[in-house]
Amino acid sequence: MNVRFTPMAAALGLAAGMMLSSVAHADTIRIAIAGPFTGALTQYGDMVKEGVDTAIETINAGGGVLGNKLEAVVIDDGCEPKQGPVVANRVVNEKIHYVVGHVCSGATIAATPVYNNEGVVMISPSATSPLVTDGKNYDMIFRTIGRDDQQGPAAAEFIAQKVKPKAVAVLHDKQSYGQGIATAVKADLEKAGIKVVLFEGINAGDSDYSAVITKLKSAGADFVYYGGYHPEMGLLLRQGAEQGLQAKFMGPEGVGNPDINAIAGPAVEGMLVTLPADFTTDPANASVVKAFKDKNRNPGGAFQLTAYSAVEAIAAGIKGAGKDDPAKVAAWLHGNSVKTPIGDIAWNKQGDLKSFKFDVFTWHADGSKSVFK
Fold it and tell me: How do the pLDDT tens digits run along the chain, 373 residues long?
């Protein structure tokens, strides 16, 4: 049977469809996951997504937030600073009110002005550069991880008190995150009276670091701190071993990626890395850990539980505000603490955590890690 619609019927049908769409949309609160889902640092984005997905599933199973379900929207920035504003503007245009991300500090720094100006709550579970928040007077920007100037002193104190090297070299990848943490470590080492014999940047993405390894050997470095990500650290470890460099290596959470084992090979054994404390061992987190494992996800990576906690903070903020209003959610977060798998967290005026614990881990050739004792 052929059915013909008059213009009036078509218009009524369109209006009804729009009303149904509006009602359906009102039942969902979307949270963007902004991070690298292409490129060399994809696994960091995957860590954050695992945390966000697990938190959303848990919260939705418990009835959602104020009767609304949460929904994740994945948006790729490739960890590229130039993509930060592009992603942020897409979030604004799609009328998404909340973001977990960005993952890398460079992209985060570039994106935050857009979010703050447009009234979007952003909580990064991984961007540690102080430049994300320092001197910005942002109201809408938060983190669920510590800063480089919390992590740097922890690393420097460990090096000075536990390792006690004769000559330290500090390298970095010339990027916001890597150079920032390396600079902080260098400053704190020098305050502790540890000699820094070399402070130098390398080019991320290069395949041959022979020249810098030669410099390390010439400088007599017996300890190397590298600020950056796992691809370059893996090459430094492998090529250093091949060239007979006798030095211990250490890096921040950006090198704590299982993919480093394939790059470095056996040379990765004994690498030291600062990471968020292992919250999976807390008995209070047993149900959270089970929720991850039930989905074949790893709760023990660098950013899974900080991302999970970011979602819990957003949910708590919406409940505390009594409505899905990002400005009111931000105001509530600034004035309250939230119970999460990483502890009871609270923020200072600029959106940084008031406290955060980094531990030092020893990385092993089988991909596992253990707290340094």
Answer: 333 334 333 343 434 343 333 333 448 999 999 999 999 999 999 999 999 999 999 999 999 999 999 999 999 999 999 999 999 999 999 999 999 999 999 999 999 999 999 999 999 999 999 999 999 999 999 999 999 988 999 999 999 999 999 999 999 999 989 999 999 999 999 999 998 999 999 999 999 999 999 999 999 999 999 999 999 999 999 999 999 999 999 999 999 989 999 999 999 999 999 999 999 999 999 999 999 999 999 999 999 999 999 999 999 999 999 999 999 999 999 999 999 999 999 999 999 999 998 999 999 999 899 999 7
Which H/E stretch holds residue 336? none
**pTM (2 decimals)?**
0.86
Count of domains forming the chain: 2
Q: Where do we find the tokens 């510590």?
A: 146
Give yes or no: residues 92 and 239 share one domain. Answer: no
**φ, ψ at 64 (rounded to 5°):** 80, -155
Asked whether residue 229 falls in the same domain as residue 366, the answer is yes
Q: What is the DSSP letter of 159?
A: I
Residue 1 covered by a domain: no
Q: Say if residue 224 is in the same domain as residue 261.
A: yes
Instruction: Tell me the backbone φ, ψ of residue 278, rounded to 5 degrees.
Output: -80, 90
